[in-house]
Design a protein that fits this description.
mainly beta, seven-stranded mixed sheet, four-stranded antiparallel sheet, 11 strands, globular
Length: 133
Amino acid sequence: QVQLAESGGGSVQPGGSVRLSCTGSKKTFSRDCLAWFRQAPGKEREGVAAMFTGDGTKYYADSVKGRFTISVDSVESTVYLQMDSLDSEDSAKYYCAVQTSATRCKEAIDTGGVLETSKYWDWGQGTQVIVSA
């Protein structure tokens, strides 16, 4: 099991930017699926960005495409989510998650489920992002 810890959340004005970080207890993220999810009050948890560190391919939800960027420092076992042009709809608790089985990771990608919560076994505790004037 991988321990994950998010940081970087806070309050930001509409149009602003925030960078979230998530550091894992795994020595390196070499062939893993890494993802960011978010959950707003009263809503289901939704995937916003994911990547497979084996080949660097990235995936984004339509709602954040062009505004959010997922990246990883595999040596430091840290995954980032750069969020730009934020609006109130982006207010939520953000969670990072990892799937360390390359087989399950590829299966998730091949079936179009790389942004589904069920595909990830290890989760962080989340960090709150509030977008408000």
